[in-house]
Amino acid sequence: MRAVVVGAGFSGIGAAVRLREAGFDDVLVLEKATQLGGTWRENTYPGCACDVPSTLYSYSFTPDTAWSRVFAGQREILAYLRATAERYRLVDVLRCGVQVLAARWDEAAGRWLLETSDGPYSAAVLVLATGPWHVPRRLEVPGIEKFDGPVFHTAEWDHSVDLSGRRVTVVGAGASAVQIVPAIEAQAAAVDLFQRTPQWVLPKPDLPVPGALNRVVDWVPGARSVLRAGQYTLQEGLGYAFRHPQAARLLEAGARAHLRLAVRDGQLRRQLTPDYRLGCKRLLTSSTFYRALSKAHVRLHPTAVSAVRGNEVVGADGTSVHADVLIEATGFHVGELPLATALHGTNGQTLEEAWGGEPQAYLGTTVSGFPNLFLLLGPNLLGGSTSAITVLEAQLTYLIAALAHLDQGGHRSLHIRPAAQAAHNTAVREALETTVYNTGGCTSYYFTSTGQNTFAWPWSTGRLVRRLRQFDADAYTSDTPGRPLRLPAQARLQSGDRTAAANAEQP
To answer: Which terminus of the chain has fewer CB atoms gathered within 10 Å of its CB, N or C?
Structure first.
C-alpha cells in the first residue's frame, strides 16, 4: 500500500477521507476492533458525552449534522463517525479486526514493513492514529483482584451489571467520574466517590437543540460556519487564560460561584475546592455533578484508595465503605503510544527507546529516525480547551503537503532533521514554563514520570494551524531519489480548479 493508517477513530477516519480526497486510492485503515469509532466506541458508560461543543467537535468537511444537544453524547458521536465513513465509502479501505503487532522501517526498500494479525503488510507511509486516550489506567491496590463483585473500568463498562439498589463505589474524580455519578445515582442505593484530588468544574450549558434551529442553521448560508467560529473563539478564550495564569483567576471565580450555588454544605464545598490553579489539570464542565454529590445517598471521600478487602474499599485516610460494584474511573495512560515498543526506525531502535520516557516529535507529527511516519494528535499538540478535531485537521493538511513534496522531488522518504526537532521541542518547553499547565501547582497526565510536559501546546490553536498549513521542507532531508510517491494530478491543483481536476488524467 502507499499508505497504511493504524486506528479507525476520529483521527483514522479523517486521515482516510483526506488522503483519498487528495487522490490516494491505495490506502488502508487497519483497526484492531471489530468496528470503527475509537474512544467513542470503547467508552459506553452512562452519561458519556463530549466536553467540546458538538459543532466544533466534528469535521469541517462534514459539518452538516443535526446535533440534538449543544454537547453531543457518545451514541450520537459514534453514529456521526459511522455516517461519515459511509458517506465517504470508507468500507473500501477499512479493515476491522486487524491488529498491527509490529512495524519496521526497511531502508533498502524505503518502506514500512508491518506484522499484523492478518499477515504482512507493506506501506510507503505509515500514519499512527491510535489516539492519546487508548490504554485504560487500572486501579492497582492490594486486594482488588479478590473483590467479591463486579469490577470494571469506565472504558470497559459492563452493561450486564444492573446497578439498581446496589452500593456502587466510584474511584476517581476526573472527566468520566463527573459524568458517571449524576447518571447512576438515581438507580443506585448508594454511591461512594473516592476523590484523590478535587477538580475545577465549570457549569456546562448542555441544552437540547431543537430540530427547527438546525434546519434554520442549514438554510441560512454560512450560518453553521459562523456558529463554529463563535464556539472556537470561546474555546480559545479559555486557552488564553491557561497561557496567562493571571487571567485564569476570572475563571476560578466563576467555578467557585458555581460550587457555592450548587453545594450548600460548607464541609463538602471545602472538600471540592482545589488548591491549585484552574487549567493545571484538564478542565471539567458539568451542571449536574455537584448536585448529585449533594444527595443524601451519595458520599464524597476526599482520599485515595489504598486497598480492597473483600467487599470493603479502604481509603488512605482509613475510610472504609462496603461496595457491591467497584467502578474504576481512573483514566488512561495518556501519551503511551500502544505501538511504541514494536515500532523500529532506521537504526533498529524502537520508538519507545528513542523517546526514553519523554515523547517528542516535530510539530507533534514527525519523529527523527522514523522516516515517513506521521503521528496524529502526537506529543505537545493539545491543550485544556482545544478541540482535538481542529488540531487533527491541521495535521492532515500538513500530511498531504508532505506527500506532495515527496512526489514533486521524486523521493522515497522524508527524514526530519534531529536539529529541527530538538529546536522545536526546546522552544515548546521554554514556552510552557510560564503557562498554567506548568506553574499551576498540581500533578497531571500532561507530565511524564521524568517531569516533562509532553502533552500541552503552549501557544494558541491559531498559531498551530498556521504552522501546519504549509510543509517546511527545509526541516527535512530526503533520501536518494527512487520510485516517486506519485500524487494524482488533481491533488497538485489549486482547490478552485475543480473542473480541471475532474478532467485530469488519473495515473
So the answer is: C
Report the pLDDT value the prediction gives residue 5, as an integer from 0 to 100.
Answer: 98
Q: Look at the chain and count its residues.
A: 507
Q: Can you give the residue range of the structural domain that contains 484? A: 3-135+334-417+460-503
Distance CA 205, CA 224 (A): 19
Going 425 to 428 to 432 to 437, the CA torsion angle's sign is: negative
- Do 122 and 28 form a contact (C-beta atoms < 8 A)? no
Identity of the residue numbered 154: T
Q: Which of 290, 309, 328 is the last residue of a domain?
A: 328
Question: Where is the domain boundary, 284, 303, 328?
Answer: 328
Is position 183 within any domain?
yes
Residue 214: per-residue pLDDT? 84
In a domain, 100, yes or no: yes
311 grid coordinates: 467487599
Q: With contact defined as beta carbons under 8 Å apart, do 307 and 141 qualify?
A: yes
Mind listing the pLDDT tens digit for each residue in 125-141?
999 999 888 789 999 99
Give all strands (DSSP E) within 178-319, no chain letters: 190-194, 201-202, 284-285, 298-301, 305-309, 312-315
pLDDT at 116: 98
CATH of the domain at 159: 3.50.50.60
User: Domain for residue 255, yes or no?
Assistant: yes
Q: State residue 493's pLDDT score.
A: 35
Say what the pLDDT of residue 383 is.
82
Number of independent structural domains in the chain: 2
- Model confidence pLDDT, tens digit, residues 354-388: 999 999 999 999 999 999 999 999 999 998 788 99
- The whole model's pTM is what? 0.92
Grid coordinates of 195: 476523590
